[in-house]
Design a protein that fits this description.
The protein is an alpha+beta fold. The chain folds into two domains: 4-203, Endonuclease I-creI; 219-305, no CATH class. The protein is built from eleven helices and ten strands. Helix 7 packs antiparallel against helix 8 (205-254), helix 8 (205-254) crosses helix 11 (291-305) and helix 10 (280-287) crosses helix 11. The protein is rod-shaped and about 115 Å long.
């Protein structure tokens, strides 16, 4: 069974957008998250993009083809030798002047100098910022199944890219956190509403639906648990109260004072002896009095038992 993150990436990889600026922003983020550069003759560049998700690799190939005609690509699959481990898919772009032109368009190359970190130039429009985050999630994102704890993260080996993603999310109003973990930098969301809003913004509609269903189930389960816990607590209180009342009655009986109790208190004591497991409400019904009236008699019984 694929992970929930894989399901979300598969859904996002099927999305295609008409605006060229959004496609470029999504491609830029994908390449930032999962590609390495290669050098060719005449100061030309190529790249290798690697992913364990076949749909994401196809999406990169699709975006590359739509972004620049004449780019030569190869795709290879490396089979995993471990059981239940994903294969690795690599999209290789052969170095050529066409790739340099694409890099200039994406902002990766400026006047023959590589821009290795800063993509802010292609993130001026809101639609492009969303597309960039969509690409970042496909390239290095993960999210827990909605039945588990809420947690979504974007993982990169670049501090500057991590900061950029964190700043983007904060700018959009998300309560994002940022932390380094070994050789990687993590941008994360932990609140349920934030995770759902983020996936909704990326247009992962099936994932959002799964989250909403899971959250509803969680809320119902928590409500049932609260009711059960409350009922259990009330039952325990009733058992403890009955035990104290029986102890008071036994004390008075041992002292030979039970027969001389006031009639109403004596009737309450006898009812408790006859019905040791009854709740206070049930005992009041047996005696034909109110619960508050029975409470008053039990308090009087306790006072008398503790008078000596």
């Amino acid at each position: 069974m694929p992970s929930f993150a894989t399901e979300v990436k598969n859904e996002l990889a099927r999305c295609y957008y008409e605006d060229e600026c959004c496609r470029d922003a999504e491609l830029a983020a994908l390449l930032r998250m999962g590609a390495t550069l290669s050098l060719g003759a005449g100061h030309t560049f190529g790249l290798n993009f690697t992913s364990k998700n076949a749909a994401v690799a196809r999406k990169v190939l699709q975006l590359l083809k739509s972004a620049k005609e004449g780019i030569r690509t190869e795709i290879t699959v490396r089979r995993s030798r471990q059981l239940n481990k994903n294969n690795s898919y690599t999209v290789r772009v052969i170095p050529s002047p066409r790739v340099n032109e694409l890099f200039e368009r994406l902002g990766f190359l400026h006047e023959d100098s590589l821009n290795m970190e800063n993509d802010r130039g292609i993130l001026k429009k809101q639609c492009c910022r969303i597309a960039y985050l969509r690409g970042a999630f496909q390239g290095g994102g993960s999210v827990n199944r909605p039945e588990a704890s809420y947690h979504l993260e974007l993982v990169t080996v670049s501090f500057e890219l991590g900061r950029l993603l964190h700043d983007l999310l904060k700018r959009m109003g998300f309560p994002a956190g940022f932390v380094d973990r070994k050789d990687a930098y993590i941008v994360y969301l932990k609140e349920g509403d934030a995770v759902v809003d983020f996936l909704g913004m990326l247009e992962a509609e099936k994932a959002v639906e799964s989250f909403e269903v899971a959250r509803n189930v969680k809320e119902v389960r928590e409500q049932v648990n609260r009711l059960v816990n409350c009922e259990t607590a009330n039952l325990q209180k009733a058992v403890d109260a009955a035990g104290r009342q029986l102890a008071d009655i036994r004390t008075l009986e041992a002292q030979g004072r039970l027969a001389g109790l006031p009639p109403k208190v004596k009737a309450a004591a006898q009812a408790r002896l006859d019905n040791p497991d009854a709740s206070l409400a049930e005992l009041a019904e047996i005696l034909g009095i109110s619960k508050s009236g029975l409470n008053h008699r039990m308090r009087k019984l306790r006072e008398l038992a503790g008078s000596n």
